[in-house]
Amino acid sequence: MSIRILIVDDAPFMRRTLAKLFEEKGWEVVGEAGNGKEAVDQFGALQPDIVTMDITMPEMDGITAVKEIVAAHPAARIIMCSAVGQQDMIVDAVKAGAKDFIVKPFQKDRVLAAVEGALKK
Amino acid sequence: MSLEFSDEDYKLFLEEGRSHLQTLEQSLLVLEDSVDQPLDLALINEMFRAAHSVKGAAGMLGLKTIQAVTHQLENLLGRLREGKFGADLELVETLFEAVDVLGTLLVEVSGPDRQTRTDTSQTVARLKDILEARENAGISTNDAQTLLPFTLNGALEAAMDAKATEVTRRAMREKRYLYEAKLDLENCRWVEGNPDHEVLERLLAITELIALGSDPALPAPDSPGTFPIKGYALVQSSAEPMIVQMLVPLPPDDMRLVYDPNSPPAEAAPAPAPVQAQVAVPAVPVAVQDEQASKPVAKQAAKPAGGASSHAGQSIRVDVERLDDLMNVVGEIVIGNTRLAQLGNTLENRYDRDNTVHQLNEALGQLGRLVGDLQTTVLRTRMVPVERVFTRFPRLIRDLARTLGKEARLEMSGQETEIDKTVSEELEDPLVHLMRNAIDHGVERPEIREAAGKPRMGTIKLSAHHEGNHIVICLEDDGGGIDPQKLLKKARDLGLANPEASYSDLEVLQFIFAPGFSTAEKVTDVSGRGVGMDVVNQNIRKLKGSIQVVSTKGEGTKFIIKLPLTLAITKALLVRSGGETFAIPLESVRESIRLTPADIKTINGRPVTQVRDQVLPLFELQAAFGWGDSERENRNLPVVVVGGEKKQLGLIVDRLEGEQDIVVKNMGNYLGEISGVAGATILGDGRVALILDVATLIDESEGKNRHESGAYHAV
């Protein structure tokens, strides 16, 4: 089954890395957003199965974006992308409705497992 | 690592990295200026984001040194952001050093083997030390000795040293949950200085480790192979038990809540927070909004990160090489189009009643307009804001002023003015040179400025704006200015100025561009080696630009640089001489005249003629470049007068061929640099024409008698 994914990260490098990883697996990257605001805008139009959401971004951070997306689309499946030192933010994001998180630097298997796991939640 | 990365990936990483590096530098400059003011949260946030982004990408690429430095940077900035302590000069200096190291590392990664070489352990240690020093500034020692209000597993209790106890106390003060995690993990390994295992990764993604008691103890960091972790960990988190259970794959019983901030054990109320008076580095109140945004530098600092990332949907990054390729192809199309138009004209002349030929020419005309549009569009694609060049100057001015014991600030305007990428790249060195001079020779020492009734801090203004097809860049300081009398004396001593001739102040000033000229009384590390302005002048001339200097003694000096917007395509006058076609850039052509052999006189063995009461030196192009015989049709000599306002030269040619757009191409490595030739171009009919470098021709023709010449003037 092809999974439709929206990648949200302000770093093009990160977006590219995740996109390659998903596309190799045969999943479809339906959109990329460079900040939370773009993510909120794109979510409604694209209705992706999964969103990978960076936390620190300009204009609108990932946690605010999760809140806005979940408020409008309660069934949204969002996976946070976190790095060392963002413990509290992940907790906040999960409280706001994110399903799971993945940890940078990404390990391929763990990223794919998180996406598949989130689809079952 | 199971991911593979291509050259393109590295390129993208480096581009992003450099942009973040700039953000960090610029923000640090602002931070340094405002250490005594409330912390600008937006600024710290931006720096944090920059460090964070680089760290993330470096981690993916396995660039451990970059990851380590940015990780510590991020830690320090994170604590700053949380208002745990304020900024101070020592801290800013440490950040500057780290950012410099980061710059070096990025340069190293751009090398062919993609590896870093610089040892970063000291940088990392310095960042760690200063973080610890600032954090512990507020800790009272009594605090650590108080017993904790809960019991831990024996192995973990043994691992609780003074620091761990203090961290625990702080976590309780900050109303966080404390958990004792029972770990029974196989096949852990060291990654980047941390033990790695999926369970551990997830645990530590949402909690912070305070202490770990494990038996056997962990092997030394980064020892190879896998190892088990069997024992207990004390962790703190903002997450309540339900969330921890949801996110961490440990059995509920193995994650014991030892401290719940909502119902703390009555007998052990947390110790009161230490009073502010004990804090060596007081936590500075945090300004909620970036009130400094009105400052030009702050505004500028805010731009790169926001601008680069907020248009993910509207813009794409393109390699400059591709743009150059595109430009080249368009250049060839322009040439091909010119050739087609010429052929069309020939056909029209030959078959002037043929309808098909007529239609062909109409189609060619339309194609020509489209090609013109294409050319304009591509040229515009190559334009970048001059900000790219200006952006490193605030830092440069800061460092220079520090080194030389001066006080100076930079005011910039017109950063959005656009310029061809190639021109912008070549512009940096001359501007750096001028900046150095401005601080070194221009701006006076603070005490001297005060004595002269000026503010202690000197101001350097850098501005850019468009004027027709040119960009004008002005660099102005409010320093001591240039003394024309002193300068003239020096020029005469050096034999650059005629001892008898009289010069206007403006003419005298132009001597600073003469080779070997320097008025600095002593040579400093920064400037004053007597090659400076000459090189600046040459660089600007290579860009087909001009530089002028204006100065008032006691008030300051201003340099005005005028550059063409693009170098790639230019209008030229084509001439024939000695069987060759030459292109003379139209901006240096003043007029063309016809002379009879009788009009040519000789002064000091040089051919000259008189044009409107002015003596015009002449130069036989064929003598310099022509290889074949003259093609002159009659005794009349066509002469193209080239040069600027002051210096002119008459080029004697065989025939004028008319005006044309030409695409400037380098001569390539075969021919190297030929004096008097700026490049080559391919004409509509496929022939190659050399493009004359008029400024050099004038210099060479006058070089023999420099003493008689007036002020040196850059064309």
Features of the shown structure:
heterodimer; A: 121 residues; alpha/beta; five-stranded parallel beta sheet; 5 helices; globular; B: 715 residues; alpha+beta; six-stranded mixed beta sheet; five-stranded antiparallel beta sheet; 23 helices; 23% strand; disordered C terminus
Structure description:
The complex is a heterodimer of chains A (121) and B (715). Chain A is built from five helices and five strands, in the order E-H-E-H-E-H-E-H-E-H. With 121 residues, chain A is α/β, with parallel strands linked by helices. The longest helix of chain A is centred in the first third of the chain and has 13 residues, at 12-24. Chain A is globular. The mean pLDDT of chain A is 91. Chain B has 715 residues and is α+β, with helices and mostly antiparallel strands. Chain B is built from 23 helices and 25 strands. Chain B has a six-stranded mixed sheet with strand order 17-21-22-20-19-18. In chain B, strands 2, 3, 4, 5 and 6 form a five-stranded antiparallel sheet that branches. The chains are: A alpha/beta (121), B alpha+beta (715). Chain A binds chain B through residues 10-17, 20-21, 32-35, 38, 56-59, 82-88, 90-92, 94-95, 100-101, 103-110, and chain B through 1-3, 9, 12-13, 16, 46, 48-49, 52-53, 55-57, 59-60, 62, 71, 74-75, 78, 194, 198, 201-202, 204-208, 237-239, 243, 246-247, 305-306, 309-313, 317.
